[in-house]
Amino acid sequence: MKPHHSLILLLLLFPAACSAPQKENITFKNTVVSLTFDDGNADNYIVRPALAENNLHATFYIVSGFTDTNGFMTENQLRDLYNDGNEIGGHTLSHVNLPDVRGADLEREICDDRNNLLARGFDAMSFAYPYGHFDDVARQAVIDCGYSNARGVSGGPDTIPPADAHDLKAMPYIVGDTRLPKMLRYVTEVEDAGGGWVIFVFHHVCDGCNEYAIKPETFSQFAQWLGEQQANGLIVQTVGDVISGRQP
């Protein structure tokens, strides 16, 4: 077989591998990655094996009022993830836009959500603002309800320690057309720039079921790469572990 025919065959059989950045001997000194999943969607449970197989732990932000309902993870599934070493955090009781609610309604959305998670045995210390929207009143309510940190959905990468633990900066949403090489560049470019905290935001894990979805095989490839890079100094931790300063 001619050499160029062999290359064509390789591209056809392994397109994802051939499209990944070919940066060899990466050494990470100052970069931390956190994988976060919003809403508690049922399809998120599919990432459990990929996380475990690659010695990774993620943060799952749960809308507790949706748990055990159609389209969302069950309490038992959340407990599986938690027992694996993943973090379970809060994401309000019913996924409201926090600046639109005040007083007792605001307290109920944030505090009751956390209390639900605590009652189920989860050490809920991390919070994510629905849609990334919040104001000073909502931020203070998150603090008053006992959360040590809260994540938005833009502005990343963040620093370690962050300038504001209740306004954590995340990378752009991972969506249906976000390719693996771009996800890898988010990490390598932060290291090249001197380091920082790369917080990824995932919603659905499926093949085309939602515009805010990553394909399972793409996530598995990303998880494998992250797992391999830990031997080169990359740190992958839950949001809560980064905030607490816990050593990996």
Describe the structure.
By secondary structure, the chain is α/β, with parallel strands linked by helices. The chain has one domain: Alpha-Beta Barrel (TIM Barrel). The protein is built from nine helices and ten strands. Strand 4, helix 6 and strand 5 form a beta-alpha-beta unit.
List the helices and strands and how they pair.
Layout: H1 3-13, H2 15-19, E1 31-39, H3 48-53, E2 59-62, H4 75-83, E3 87-90, H5 103-119, E4 126-128, H6 136-144, E5 149-155, E6 168-170, H7 180-192, E7 196-202, E8 204-205, E9 213-214, H8 216-229, E10 235-236, H9 239-244
Parallel strand pairs: 1-2, 1-7, 1-10, 2-3, 4-5, 5-6, 8-9
Structural class designation: alpha/beta
* Integer-rounded radius of gyration: 19 Å
The tally of domains stands at 1
Largest sheet: 5 strands, parallel
Question: Percentage of helical residues?
Answer: 25-40%
CATH class: Alpha Beta
Q: What's the tally of helices?
A: 9
In short:
This protein has 248 residues and is an alpha/beta fold. The protein is 36% helix and 17% strand.
Key terms for this structure?
TIM Barrel; 9 helices; 17% strand; alpha/beta; 36% helix; three-stranded parallel sheet; 248 residues; 10 strands; disordered N terminus
